Amino acid sequence: MKKYRVTLTDQEVGLLEDITRKGKRSAPIIRNAYILLNANEGGQWKRAKGRGYFQTAGGHDTDT
Known about the structure:
Elements: H1 10-22, H2 27-39
């Protein structure tokens, strides 16, 4: 059950992806960026292979 609907524009997705890639922000900001990307109803986002902890498209969250 989804509690909130999140629909991000392509520009917002790009900004959040930059935040997660660069890693120059605080951990809570990066974590929130991942949460928003995963909650986005506009697309299926997956974290880069080999980096670990978030994926969508029916996958499970992992901590590697």
